[in-house]
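Figure 6 in text form: structure in, sequence out.
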């Protein structure tokens, strides 16, 4: 029966591949060079390092690559499909940032407003610092008043002093149930979790250092408070529905469960099933703006195309061009990656290609996911690229990063004028 399922699966792969190829155009990409990208992904599948993936590349809104590879469910013999649904994890952050910026454009707040104006629990933040010399061994830290209030912009650029619990006060974060990015199994609202977070010490003074963590979850709760809607309803009504993102949600309807990609993990070079999470069953209650969304490649491509179009897609305008440009302006000084790249509002920005040292376009921006996907948007080359897979842990595999480089090596007709980089 397994062999029969695999044979049927291979037929499904061939049909999906043929349909995808029929819809592709070149748009300045060399098809033979793009074949290197196909070969790289397939090689990882053949060597048992990855079950399956979907690759998407577009230029000027036209599809250059939309191809499924391998298996959505290896054991079940179900081939990967272009409409497979993936856990986005931290690729949710850009969506939540756009949600907040839509409220910003309505005049509901300023980016440099203190968060405590809207979330009073953050009114008197303190920072965990090393204890004085001679303190008892059990004293891990002491607290000092934060030098600055947390601003809404701090939440968007990850300078709020919020990690995912790591730092001097990590034991207190663990005791509070706030260590790590995963919220899907929680029988509480994100507001309840955020209010508990506000009682814990920060791990840095707001505005002074890039620290990746719970900031976008706080931002998502801010969206709820300011809009008067739960985050899932706001994103559905104000972003997903206008953009035609029909499979984007925090928790999957049971009838769509069969389209959810299986999570695998690479441990000591061996591929095995991973933790599937509580995205179909479970409390379905805690909407994590930082790491909770699910979507197809096609849905997320529509979201990124909206950003590339400076806030608009097919007549639906979410943001103004000025606000989108603000998103990919450097917001974090030189605090991100030692200055090799900049950080905007929700994602990295590659303003220094020489310092970064990889073939990623000047001014391109993007981010990734704990589940292994990566995306980028290149305003100068008018390119959107998404690599989607579900691999946690990734076992040191860097395929998602190399896939981006192979996108650029296939672009043989680049834009004529050089990009303007700050």
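Output sequence:
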């Amino acid at each position: 029966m397994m062999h029969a399922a695999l044979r049927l699966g291979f037929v499904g792969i061939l049909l999906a591949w043929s349909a995808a190829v029929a819809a592709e155009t070149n748009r300045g990409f060399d098809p033979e060079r793009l074949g290197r990208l196909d070969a790289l992904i397939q090689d990882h599948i053949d060597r048992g390092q990855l079950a399956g993936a979907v690759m998407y590349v577009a230029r000027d809104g036209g599809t250059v690559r939309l191809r499924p590879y391998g298996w959505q469910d290896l054991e079940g013999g179900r081939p990967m499909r272009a409409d497979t649904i993936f856990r986005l994890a931290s690729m949710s952050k850009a969506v939540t940032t756009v949600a907040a910026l839509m409220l910003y454009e309505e005049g509901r707040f300023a980016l440099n407003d203190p968060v405590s104006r809207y979330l009073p629990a953050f009114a008197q933040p303190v920072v965990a610092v090393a204890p004085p010399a001679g303190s008892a061994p059990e004293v891990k830290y002491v607290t000092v008043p934060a030098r600055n209030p947390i601003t809404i912009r701090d939440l968007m650029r990850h300078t709020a002093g919020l990690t995912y619990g790591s730092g001097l006060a990590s034991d207190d974060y663990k005791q509070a149930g706030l260590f790590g990015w995963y919220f899907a199994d929680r029988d509480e609202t994100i507001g309840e979790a955020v209010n508990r977070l506000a009682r814990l010490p920060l791990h840095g003074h707001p505005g002074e250092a890039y620290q990746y963590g719970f900031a976008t979850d706080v931002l998502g709760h801010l969206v709820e408070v300011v809009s008067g809607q739960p985050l899932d309803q706001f994103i559905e009504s104000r972003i997903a529905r206008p953009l035609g993102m029909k499979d984007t949600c925090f928790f999957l309807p049971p009838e769509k469960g069969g389209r959810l990609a299986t999570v695998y993990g690479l441990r000591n070079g061996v591929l095995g099933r991973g933790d599937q999470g509580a995205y179909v069953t479970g409390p379905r209650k805690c909407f994590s703006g930082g790491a909770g969304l699910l979507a197809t490649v096609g849905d997320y491509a529509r979201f990124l195309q909206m950003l590339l179009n400076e806030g608009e897609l097919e007549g639906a305008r979410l943001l103004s061009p000025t606000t989108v440009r603000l998103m990919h302006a450097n917001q974090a000084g030189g605090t991100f990656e030692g200055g090799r790249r900049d950080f905007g509002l929700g994602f990295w920005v590659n303003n220094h290609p020489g310092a970064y040292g990889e073939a990623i376009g000047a001014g391109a921006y993007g981010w990734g996911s704990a589940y292994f996907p990566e995306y980028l948007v290149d305003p100068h080359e008018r390119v959107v690229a998404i690599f989607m897979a579900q691999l946690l842990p990734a076992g040191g595999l860097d395929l998602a990063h190399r896939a981006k480089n192979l996108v650029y090596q296939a672009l043989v007709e680049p834009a004529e004028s050089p990009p303007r980089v700050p």
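Caption detail: Residues 71 and 79 are 4 Å apart (CA to CA).
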